[in-house]
Every structure is written in C-alpha cells, then in structure tokens.
Fold each of these.
Amino acid sequence: MFELVIFFFFAAVAVIGALTVVLHPNQVVGAISLVLSFFALAVMYVLLGAPFMAALQVIIYAGAIMVLFLFVIMLLNVERDEIVVSRPVQRFLGYTAGSAFGLTVSYYLLKAAVIEAPEGSIFLSDARSVGMRLFEAYIFPFEMVSILLLAAIVGALLLTQRDVRRDATGGGETV
Amino acid sequence: MAFDTTDIVLTVVKIAFVLAITLSITPVMVWVERRGSALIQDRPGPNRVGPFGLLQSLADALKFILKEDVLPAQAHRWLYTLAPVFGLIPAVVTISVVPFARSFVIPEMNVFGRTWFEGGRIFEPIIADVNIGILLIFALASLGVYGMALAGWSSNNKYSLFGGIRASAQMISYELALTLAAIGALMGAGSLRLTEVVYRQTGYFVLFGIDWLRIPAWNIFPMFLGFIVFYVATFAETNRLPFDFAEAEAELVAGYHTEYSSMKFAMFFMAEYMAMGTISALTATLFLGGWDIPWYDEPATFVGFLLSGLAFLIKVSFLLFVFVWVRWTLPRLKYDYLMKIGWKVFLPMAILNILIVAILIAFRWI
C-alpha cells in the first residue's frame, strides 16, 4: 500500500516533469523539469529493488549530464523572442504523430509486458555483481567503449586546439 | 522489509538527533568563523551578545527573519524561490548514510510494565545503512550544484550569472577528483557501505614487523595522496576560500546570491555550513577512521557508543575548524589556476592513488 502511494506520486512527477520539458517555452525550466523526471525515475529503480541503478541514474544523468546542459543553456542565454515560432501545421503534425506513437507504444507494452514479478528469480544489481559482469562477461564491449570514448576525447581536443594544428603544419594555414 | 514499532521509534529518534546536530552546525560554525577570524586577525570579534558572544548567531538569525524579503523585478519568480531549497536539501539529506558511533547492544528493559528490546537489540548509529552508501552521498551532493546555478541564472543579474556558471564549472571539475580519491578508501573496505569502511579501519598496522610499533589502520596512512586530493576537493565542492569563486566578493559583489536577502539568503548560508559538516563527516569516515579511537578497543556497550561518538565529533570538529583556519589564512586563487590544478594535478594524483592502493591490496600490505 505504502509502496503503491510512493509509486503513483513519483510516476506523476516523472510524467509531469517530462511533459514540462516538451511544452514549457523556457529552456532552464525545461532542464530542471528533466532533472526532476530523472529523480522520479531513480525512485522507481529503488522500488524495483535496484538502488545501485538509482544512484547511477542520479549521479550520471541528473548530476553530470544535466548540469552540463544547464551550463550550456545559461551560457547561450537564448532570449524568448529569438526562438523560432513553428507554424500551426507543423505543430498539428507534431502533436498528432507524437501522441499516435505514444499510444501505440503504450498499447503494445500493456499487451506484451509481464506485470507480475517472475517467481523465484534472484536479481542482484549491486555494485559487485554489475562490476563482475562488466569485467568478465562483457569485458570486450567494455574495453571497446573506452576506446570509443578516448577517440571522442581526442577529437574534442583537436577541435578546440586550433593553434596547435596551425603550428604543426608550419604556420600560415587558416583553420 | 518488515518494520516493527521499535524499529520505527528508533529510526525517528535517530533522525531527530542527527537533524538537530546538523541544524546546529550553522549557528555554532558562524560563531567559530567569526571568533576564529578575529583570533587570526588579532582582534576581539563579536563578544557582546551572551558569554563570549555565543548568542551572536541567534541575534543574526533573528535579524534574517525580520529583514525584508526582496524579489527582484526581472527575476524568474519560481526558480528564484526554489533555488535555496535545491541548495539546502542535499546538504541535509546526505548525512543520513554516515555512521556516527559504534553500534551497541540495547539490553532488555522493563519499563512502564512492558518489556522493551526483547533479548537485546543491536542499535546501529546510522539512519540508513544502505548498500550503496557513498554513492547516495555523491548522487545527492551532485544535485547541490543546481542550487547555485539556478540562483545565479534566475536572479537575472550578470554578477549572479557569473557566480552560478563558475560554481557549476568548478563543482563538475572537482567532483571527479573527489570521487576518484574516495575510491581508494572504498577499495580497501571492498564495500560501498560506510559502516564497513569504518570497521575496516578499526585495527592496527604493525610497522616493519615490530610488534609495539603500531599505528591505527586509518586510511590516511596508506592513502595519504588520496586524502590530500579529497581534502582539497572538499574545499572546492563547498565553495570555501581559497576556492570560493562562486561568490568572490572582490570581482562578483556576492556571486550567485547577490540578489538574495532575508531567509532565502540565510538558507544559502545554512546550506554552505551544512555541506561543510557533511563533507567533514565524510572525510573523517573515509580517511580518519570514522568513530574509531586510536589504540583503544571500544566495547559494544553504551559507554563504547558514547566514547566513539565523541571521537567522531572531535574529528569532525577539527576538520571544520581547518575550514575556518584556511579561509582566514590563504588568499583566493586565480580562476584559471583553479581549473588547471583541478584537471592537471588533482585528477592524475587521484588516479595514481588508486594505482597505489591496488598494488598495496594485491600484495596484501593493507
């Protein structure tokens, strides 16, 4: 009973937060609503018995990624009248397609999803078991992802360090 | 999870106790800060209200309540009001996973014609002993930055905005060093649970095989590098001098809380000191043995509970005093220098610390 109340409260927070992100004209309010929505999702993970996932959800999405988003929004500081107003046709098509997609997804989820918890399965998602999985069963994709991230970091550095590139080619070249 | 009445009562008592301590950190620390700065600058400091000026904080609080609450005309009304709350909540909640004393057995008692604690009950002096312990602290602490960033943005003031942007950049940068430095201590314990991190530090290190040459098994000794990085990062995370760029009064008036007044300002003030208290408690837990008393075996009784709690309080108070000491001794750094040492010095040092700890564990030296 208690869990049900918590579930419905945070489910409402998550949905309202997500709707605010899409519908509110102010980007900063949108970013904060997304943080709220992520936080409510983390509560869902706790209710499902996966507190480790909940902590990661908050640390990575709410704590790291959204701070960067907010940082960029604040730096750009877009004025309200600079935002391009969409045409009524575009808006109609967008809302129709979006709600059709949402309805279809929820229809098939309700049809196919198993609502009851599987019997007798012990599902562990603490730090130890996740770490073991990552470094034993999924060691190859794990290492591949780190190489991918390294490539991304090097690329980002190359894009920002324009002077270095000019010096390397002997100068005179405009980048 | 099945709770009985005793569990609920004990938890409520623990929450009330910890909340009372956390809330009283701010007035006490304000007094320590004022008298401490006066001591360092060779002047008397506030000494009129109450003995040694101890009631000065009360007078300050009264003043905050009575001041006019100004809402700037161009501010974003909702976010401006919410920002101090965003700052305050993480500072209050994070303390719940820190163990503050040794656990002890409550003996069976017969009070009011009813038997309490049948067969004895172990009292864990921690509000929530969850298996993600420290991750919870990092998760909530990472939300603390929203308070400053939003306050800076919603005030619609260029100084506030600069303060907010600086705060977010600085906290993102130093969060990495802080987390990586803490990993060493967690590797030693093999758990994210802070109670286990403390129990791991209750023994001794016997140096060079000489039996009487014993030092407490505190993490600060094998992980000194990690401790340094962690401790410096805590100054950046709590926006204290020499890293208080979010409010650098010489450049930004008062930074992110320039436009704030009355109780909203007081909430930022409280959040800052509570965050200092939480992070000092975390430093003591991770590196200084938590509630462990060196060269003494705490018994699992009420006396052991009290003594260990006192030891923890002394450690946290010392760390808090160092915050004051450093603030009134060191000048503010340059902003670019802060970023440079954060990424180029402290981050590599934290990674090096992980490597050292891994080697120590591999050879079974700790």
Amino acid sequence: MERIRIYMTGVGGQGTLTATTLLARTALDQGLDVVSGEIHGMAQRGGVVESTVLLGGWKSPKISHGEADIVLGFEPLETLRGLPYLAKGGSVISNTEPLPPVGVSCGRDTYPAMEHITERVKGCSAKCWFLPCRTLGLEAGSVQAGNIVLLGALCASGLLPFGPEALESAIRKYLKPSLVEMNLKAVELGVAKLAG
Amino acid sequence: MAHPILAGGPGEKHLLLGNEAIVRGALEAGINVVTCYPGTPSSEVPDTFHRLKDGSYYFEYSVNEKVAMEVAAGAALGGAMTLVTMKHVGVNVAADPLLTMTYTGLPGGLVLLSADDPGCHSSQNEQDNRYYARLAGMPCFEPASAQEAKDMTREALHLARRTEQPVMLRTTTRVNHLRGPVAFDVRPEPAAIVDFKRDPRRFVPVPAVARVRHGELLKSLEAIREVAENSPWNVVRGEGKVGIIASGIARSYLTDVLAEQGWADKVSVLELGMSWPLPVKLIGDFLKSVDKVIVIEELEPLLEKEIRAMVHEMGLSLPVHGKCDYLTVQGEYDTTAIQMALAEHLDAQPVSPVCNEGDLGLPVRPPNLCAGCSHRAVYYSVRQLFGDDAYYSSDIGCYTLGILPPLKAADFLFCMGSSVSSGCGFSRSSGKDVVAFIGDSTFFHSGMTGLVNAVFNKHNVLLVVLDNGTTAMTGHQLNPGVDAKVLGDACVHLDIESIVRGCGVTEVAKVKPFNLKATMKTFEEMKGKTGVRVIIAEEPCILYARRTLKLNRPQAAYVAEQGAETDRVLNEYACPAFYRDETGVQVDESLCTGCMVCMQISKNFKARKRSA
C-alpha cells in the first residue's frame, strides 16, 4: 500500500492522545504496519499536544516539516500552527471551534480569524474539510466525543485504506462499554458532515 | 480479564507504548524486583508495573534515584532479577552506587533503564547517558522500536543474570513514547532467586578489593564484547561503498530516508542496537569494506570519536564523518536532517521538504498551572508580600511553572532538591532574602538533606513546602507524603511537619493556601524573622483531588461586577478559568474548580451554585 504520514495536533486535556491510540489500533487491526508517536511532557497543563500515526511501513514515529500527508487538527489555531508539517499535495481535516490560549483569554493576544485559518489551509492543501467538532461531540453526548467526530471524518475522507466501519469495530473492541454508543454516534456525525 | 501485558501469550501481537513494551520484556525475562523514581519520559514503565501488580514481582516507588539504585542493587545481590528505572538526570543522583556495583557485580542480575531526553522535551538538560555506560562499565542496549524495547529488555536482563554485570537499557523520549506492534513470546515463571554466597573479598570494596574488582570488570566487559560482536541487533545491510553506522532511534530515521530517497543500494549500513562494549571486529570489518563512513547518533559524538580512533589504530585512511551542520550535538535528529546530511555524500542535492512557512506571531500555549491549583494561591500571596525584593529559588515539579508572569516565582533552579541548598548559598553570598519552593515528593527526594545542612550551618532561608499530597508533575505517583488511605497497606505515610521539626527547624507553620488571609498573615510573620523558616502549604493537587480523592466543590465563581479591580485580578491572579469577552472578564464555569481564591482577592467575584 501507499505509505501515509498523519500529523495530529491539539491541546492538552482534549483527549487527542486517546484518539491517536484508537486510530493506530484501528490500523493495526486492519493488518496495516503502524507506528505512532506522541510528545506530551506537560500535556495536562494546557500545552500543545502533538502526535503522529504513520501507516504502511515507516519506522520513524516522528514527522518533520513538509512530510505529513494528512494534518488532523483538533483545534483550529493548532491546525494553523501545524501547517508547516503538511507535505505538498497533502490534506487537512480540522475542527473549527477554538480553545483560546491563556494570552487570548486575558486579552493580551488575538486569536486569528477563522476565515484566515481556512484561507491558509485551502492555500496549501490539496483537499480540506472543516467540522464543528465540539458541537457535534456534544450532540453525540460529550465534548470528548468531538475527537471521534474528527476521526470519523478522516475515515470517511477516502484518504486512508480503511473506512469508518473499521473505526467502529475498534471503538466496540477497545473503548469502555459505557462509551461505545456515544462514540459510534460521533463517528456517524463525522461521516455525515463530510458527506454533506 | 487480566491485562494483555500480563496475560498475553506467545504469538499475540499488541500495540504497545515503548515503555509498556519494556514492562512486557521484563516479564518475559521473569523479573523479580522493580524499583524506580518516576520522571518523564520513563514514568509509564514504573506506573505500568504498579498498576498491573499481580504478585509475581516486588515493585516500589523509591524516594529518589540513589535509593532506588541501592535497593535494586541489594535486591540483585540477594538474588533477584531486578530492573531499576529513572530519567537521564536521575542517573546523576544514582551515580555513586552505580559506579561501584559494576565492580562487585550482582549475581541476581540488574538492568538500569536510563530514559534520555534529547531536545529537553521535559527536562533541564539533554545529557547523553551513553557516557555512563562507558564510565561505569555497563553493556548498553539502545532500542529503536516497541518490539526492540521489549526484546532488548528481556535480553539485557538475561545478560545481566548470566554475566552478573549490571546492564544499561538506554532509551530516548521518542522510543519511550512511540507506539508500535509488539509480537509476544512466552512469559515464564519468575526467575529463580540466586542464593547469596557470602564473599566480603568481592562485595565489600575496600581499596584492596576494589583494585582487584576493577580488573574483574574489565575482563567481564571483554567477554561481553563477544556478545556485541554476535548480537542480532548489530547487523550490516547493503553493499554500497558509502558506509553508515547508526545507533538508537536514528536507525529508524535512517531506514525511512534510505527507502524514501531510493538510496538503499548506494550504501552499507551497520546498525548498532547493542552499542557497548563496541563490537570492534564487526566495526573493523565494516570499515575495511567501505570508502568512507558517516556516523549517525543523536547527542554526543561518542561512536564517531571511537570509530576515528579505530581507523587510526587500524592504519586505515578512510574519512569518518559525523557531526555537521545538519547533524548537531544539540537536540533530536529527524529524517530531514539525515537526508540533508547524507545527500552530499551520495552526490545528491539536499532537499528540504518544507513547502509551507508557518504564520509568525501566533498566540502561544505555554503549559500553565491548572485552574484551581493551590500553588497559584501561594505564589500570589508571596508575590503580594515580597514582590521583587526577595529572590525565588525554585525546584523540579509542576510548581516550576510559577516561572511565568504574572506569578514570576522562579529566579533560579538546578536540579531536584536544589531549592533549599542553593537558596542558602545565594542568600549567604548576596545578602538577599530568599524564598525557596519545593514540592512534597521533591522534599522527600533530596530536600531533607539540604534542610539539615541549612539548620546545621545557620543559613537564612524561608522554605515553602508546596505539599499537594502527590507527585503531580509526573502523573500522581505515590510518595511518603501521600494520604494513608490512598497508600493502603503496602506503604506508610510520613508527616512532613514532623520531619521538618526533626531536622531541627523551630520556625515552622502550616497554611491552607485557599485561605488567603491566613496564608498572607503567616507569610508576613515569617518575613519578619531570620534563619531557617519553613511554611508547609497543604492542599491536594486539584487533578488528584478529583480523580483519586473524588473531591468536587458544588460552587463556582462568577464575576458580579466589572471594573479596574476585576481587571487587576485577571492580570495578577491569571487563573486559566478567567477569560475576557465583549462584556468584560468572565469565569469559565467548566474550568472553575471552586477554590474561591479570586473572591477573597476582590468582592467583584462571587460564588454561586453550578448550573446543572
């Protein structure tokens, strides 16, 4: 198969590492060669959390600037910050709902306009999609389910060698039984948003 | 159902974190004893052992790395197959016993996990602990994948038991925190305990013994060199005339670069997975087979210099390349750096894959003390009273984040425990007032000794023990100050105040940081005194309080009135639950933990019951 590098970025506390591991497990269960990486020294305390999933035989868990076939942004400012990782002809899927950094909350810094972010993403990607993950996550049952909305959209995008059903079976297999239904709903919402 | 790391059978394949793979490897060797001091990026190894305890091994969170190393060495003397884990700087703390236990040898077998952190992702330096393998005389394994992390841990423990020599398993952050498929082998019964044979002429290194034992160590290492010569992780690939020698995670980057650039048939690659003692025959034959050699290793140019020396000794004339503009001594490598460095040796153009420049000046997200963190209340009180008149001696933990404005509660810091002793020295020479901050786990780790010294030598320091009842920064590991109910039957709770008084401190006070008025009053009293003074600020870590102690407060703060005073609270207290919108300052109820400190600072903040 074609080898794929996925760069994922979000904010500590969002649960992006859980999403990263779920995607890596989904790929492994589909018989794909997978390696995944994460940097999370101070993740819990509101810092940026970067993670990777590399499919199809890569050995390195790290992605350099210009190497990511897919940038998956769990938070729009972090999508913008992560754009240098995108390879030529790569694709972007991003949440549109901000988590303002402390400087913005206090009025010292200005959060970039969403139009600016979408323009920048469109300007450097072959394909891109934007979803209101927090809203859709809440519709599924919780803010955290927003991450699974994004993974659902990724699996429906045709960019991966497997579709949403692979993610659904991983959710049934690896998540706590009490969380399965909500997250299956989240996948459904992500898939529907991408189609619509 | 038992966890797959414990119960998984041969042939099963699981996606594991590098650190989890190390645990499985130890179990597949038949581990008997595990000790540690937690520290990123090593922490998931001890935490997994702690979480999965099934009675087949003894595990402890030791109070510091030296103690962990000594307990482990004693256990291995007593015949146990033993693993001791720590981050790279922890090995400095443990170096004293380490450099002698390689002389005596340890019959049960001991492996030291040293988790290095190139790039300083969560550390105060990026020292290269492969130096310790050479300094102490330890065989060294350097895994690059989750599978290797598992297999090398098992092999290292077997080697340690077979040869009685302590062995180093050296990882880097990328390896500890990667995930990959791991094919399991059999998990045997725990290893047999080796009967200790009393032999003071070996195990008591008085000078006459030490001299002999040093010779024994050198002989052992020569014998182990044969293991490295034949190790399945020291292998040559390819037949090109450009030679590349690579170690650690750089092996993975190299493999990806060669595949992506189509360079595999132009080069010969010697991978060194077991990197010490050097397999000199293997390397020598490799050097003779190529026209030039490029050494790819993160951090210090150790292999590079050793290979240069070999080229000289062998009378060869091939050029040896290593550190260069792309492959530096600082930080981590990546595929781009290796591609750019190799290009010139392979008559290719170095190509940067970068195609998008990032936006400059984006708002940053520095890691921050949590909403409801009691350290913020302490720092606020101290800053209100002392301002810039005092100098703040910080230490290692979440509370180092007090460095950020507006709290600005860190002026200097070296290492675990340095807050007390360096604060003393600073105050002595400069005549300035020093307020030192130390967490509970760090106090037990190495603050106590500094405190004894402070009393003994009549230093002038105000030490604040930020006691949040857990080892917060690294993931809430147990320490002697943890609540007795949480510790359970296996451990005993120790009272910090009794220890402080036992160290001879007479000026001791306790505060509850969320009672701002009383806290400020206590600080004010202590400010008026000199000598060694200790304030213990007690309040559980908010994350820990919610998760482990199940404490939740029913009320949250809100802004009842806007104005200059409200803005001042936003700017000076800067709780992450505060934000500003069109109408003014607000409190995000979902982030507010109900600590109620803001409403003690200003009447403009009030409490109310949480909305549903």
Amino acid sequence: MHIIVCVKQVPDAKDVRLDPKTNTLAREGVEAIMNPYDRHALEEAVAIKEQQGGSVTVLTMGPPQASAVLREAIACGADQGVLISDRAFAGADTWATSYTLARAVQTLESFDLILCGKQAIDGDTAQVGPGLAHRLGLPFATCIQKTRRVSPEQIEVERMMDDGYDVLRLPLPALLTVVKDINEPRVASLKGKMRAKKAEIRTLSAADIGADPQSIGLAGSPTQVVRVFSPEPRGDRRIFSGSVEEQVDQLVACLKAHL
Amino acid sequence: MDYFFTEQQQMIIDTAREITNEKIIPLRAELDEKNQFPRAILEDMAKADLFSIFVPEEYGGLGGGCYEIVLALEELARGCVGVATSFAASALGIFPVMIAGTEEQKQKYLPDIASGARWAAFGLTEANAGSDASGIRTTAVLDGEEWVLNGTKQWITNGGESEIYSIVALTDPSKGARGASIFIVEDGDPGFSYGKKEDKMGIRSSSTRELILKDCRIPKDRLVGKRGTGFITVMKTLDMSRPGIASLGIGLAQAALDEAVIYAKQRVQFGKPIIGFQAVQHILADMAIQLEAGRALVYAAARHIDSNPKDMSKASSMCKVFATDMAMKVTTDAVQVLGGYGYMKEYPVEKMMRDAKILQIYEGTNQIQRNVIGQELNKEYS
C-alpha cells in the first residue's frame, strides 16, 4: 500500500505574534515546525504501513528550507520526501495550492491513500485536503478520529462529529483529513534520524509537474487578502447561575439596564 | 558546560529528551501514585531505538558504549528515575550475554533486545544475599540435556515484566562464589514463576518482584559462559552498569536543580523573589557545583570504561558513589528551597527525593562501593 501524506511547514504557534504596526505575522525568529495535525496524519500513515506493508511518501509545497519537515517525517517513519518548490508557487491560496499538490501527486507513482491534517495552524482554512481530493476526483472524508479497518480495496474510519461520530467506508484510493484524537505521534527514532540525514529529497518544480502558469502562485489564486487585523477583544462576559427562572430574570434585568 | 559530544551522541540525547518531555513527564506523578509499570513508555522508547544503543551493530544495535548509555539514562532520569530504571534494567539483564554469551545466544537474544521486542532483567539478589552476593542459595543441577534450577530471587527489577532473565545460580555449591554460573531463564519456562510484588518508597513505576524457580527446567545451552565463571561475569556486568546508575543520579539532580531555581525565581517573600536572598543562592550554587562535578566524573568514568581498560572497578564505583550521594543531597536541598510546597505532592521534588534514596542502595550499596575503592587503593599501593 502506497500512502501519500501532505505536510506543511508552519510557524510554531507558541511563538506567533502580530506586528502591531503592519498587522502581519511577525515570522522573524519564530521556529518553523511541522503542522501539528500533519504529524498525526503521518503517524497514522506509518502505523497503517507497519500493519499492511508498503511505503509512505511525504509531500510538501514550500521554499527549499521546507525540506526540514520532510526529513523530520522520514525520521518518524516515512520512506521518502518530495518537495514541491518553485518561485512561481509563491503567494498561492488554497485553490492554487490544491491544484499544485494535485499536479505533483499525478507525477508520483500510483497511490492507495492520501492523508492530510485537518487544517494548518497558520491559515486554519481546512480547505486544501478536500480541494486536493476534488482535483484528483477522489472520495474523501474530513476530521477522521479513528481508522477502524484497512484493506487493499477500502478503508473504514470514524469521522468526528459534534455529538459523536460517523462510521464511514470509503473505496480506495481515497483522501482523509485527520484530527489529533486519531493517535499519539511517536518520537523520531535514532535510526530514522540517521536515515533522514542521508535521505535525498526529490524536488519538483512548476515545469516538473507540468503546471499551468495561470493556475499557480499568486496568478492562480482568486483569494486576495485585503487586510489582516487582530480581532477586537470580546466584551465582558457574565455567567448567570441559579434556577432557569432566576437566570432569565437576571438576564432580562441586565438587558433592560443596558437599553 | 560543553562536553563536545559527537553528532551521534547529541542525537541520542535529543531523542531521550523528547521521550522524557513528551512521554515521561506528563505521566510520572500518576505512575508513581498508582505503582504502575510504564509499559507504553518503554514501547515508545523501543520505537525510538533507545534499546538499540547498547547492542552491537552486528546484532541490530547502534553499537554505543557505556558513555552513550549514560547520556540516554541521564535524560530519562530527568523525567523519572522509576522509568529510567526499568530501561536500565534491560541493559543490565543482557550484559552477561554480551560479555560471556555464545554466538548462538547473542544471535538469539540481542536483536530482540535492540528492537525492544523483548526486555531483560538481572537476577542476583536473594533474601540472604544482598551486599554479600556470595551468599546465594539458588542451585542449578545438570540432568541429562537440561539444567534444573531451584531457589528464590528477591527484589528483581523488571520481574514479571521482562521476557529474558539472567539468573545467577550455584552449579558447585561447595565452591561458594567460584561455583556460581549464569543461566538465561525465559518467561514461560516450566517451573518459573513470579512472587511478591514490592511496594516501594520511590521509583514506584518500576517493577520489583520475586522470581521463583521451582524445579525450573531449561535447555542445556542456556548456560552463559563457562560453568563456575558466573561471579566473574557478574562483577564485569556491574562494572559496566554502575556508571548508568550514577547517570540516573545526574539526571535526577538536574531535574531537582531546575525545579528549585525556577521556584526560587517565582516565589516572593519579604518583597522579593527568594533567589535574591544569599542564603537561597548559596544552596542553589552548591547544588549546581556538586551536580557538575558529578557529571564530569560520570562522563570521565564512562569514557574510561569504553577504552576497555584492564581494570574499571575503581572508576565505576567512584562515579556511582559520588553521583548518587550527590543526588540525595541535591534533591533534599531542592525540597528545602521549595519549603512547605516542596513537601507536597503537587510539586515534583518530594518524589525526586524519594527516588534518590534507592540510588545509594541498589547495584551495590555506596558502602560496598567504598570497599571496592579501598581494596583497589590497597592493591595499587602494594
């Protein structure tokens, strides 16, 4: 079974600040990490590989230094890393990114499963996974909290819902995005780290994946960021207690006082 | 202080540190309270290849020496000495095979130890054989193609949790210590069972248990080394393992110092953080001085042992005594710096103080270590 895991290098959320003057992310000096949800997607892929046999390919789009997350993934059990990197990809929104990833996936060997994190912690859109599935014409499901059964033909999973979970069966190949509840990622192994250090990272350019120049990067991105700003702090909150009747009385009194 | 580690050593430290921070520290208080063996954490360590550090490369290991084990154990002990002890006991249990085992025995056991598929334990101590290891009563008698073992081992770390046991037994009781041999007993061997599980003051996540050998029959080829050479192998095993115990003291003392300094910076009394008071500063300074001196001695002893010297007992014993006495002192001082809070279970230092005590006792009490050092001095100056 060949599993592709899409990962993204993101600034460590613990360190992220907004520059108060420009209202943009202050990225300088902030450590770059593998998107935490993607760590869980990778762990699930490695666990399925250990059970079923096969291989795991990690895929990322980013600048050359993004290869660090591919090496980290190899240290954690992935077999190979592929970096999609080209100046022409810069400024891509989720539409252009999913197109680019889809073109890259089509240049790789055939696969049985694509796993992604639910969303990246920098953009928080949760659109790239489903977008990629759509581009590739794959069945997909998001917010997977458990893999129940895997066979060469299909996968049975649990999708996290607000009030429980759905059990879904998807024919393979398919794409899944995962939540953190799905597993506990392992610590990178010593032998994995040694392998990662020596591993050759395959790099794909816009030409390598046969990308249409109008569909990638800024040119291929219909979303334009007009303004970035810190949300207004929320007003004071009060929590009423007592019986329902008492709480309603308190609420009505409070509303009247503010009219 | 920079100890100029090699790239591989740094990788080992980083990996052990990740295990400690991500897997051990979040669970240590619960494991301590519930007296619970850290099976899942040891499995995580196995996945991270930590068990392969001390196994030679030809058997699937990384071929590290005493120094590499010491570096890993120090990091693990920073999280929990109980967990680190469980890990260290697997190394201790397999050292006899590495030192004196046949090629077939190494092929059979070492790859499983390296991958963490099976864990080991070391069975020497008995009710009447502690510091005086020659007092053991367990016997092994050859009956055709099988050895028959009888006796009870006491306080065996990883007892009931490991699959492979190195058992010291008398093959010629009339010869005393010179009549001892080492055998591999496996979990599930006929006549082999587990007895009382101890309820301990510290290192409560580690399993300490009785091993019962009642007409335990094992194949003839489970004898490790030549018959009657058991005690020589035991002494070599302990020479190699003692710096590991010393490094548990280093990691533990580092953890205690970290807690004490962080607390002293935050705790305000008489209008300022207590680290501003010289009385507190001096306690912290003495903790740091003793810790760094201990660390330097342990690293030096480990490197000495890795150079395969003719005699390693003195260096091995010296670092064990110094580092573990230091750990007892430093953890006690950490409780003092935290005052009443230090005595409460909400803070980790009371556990550290409880965990420290065993380091002065197991793998040869610190009094026995001083005997060894004294005897070596006597020889050197003769």
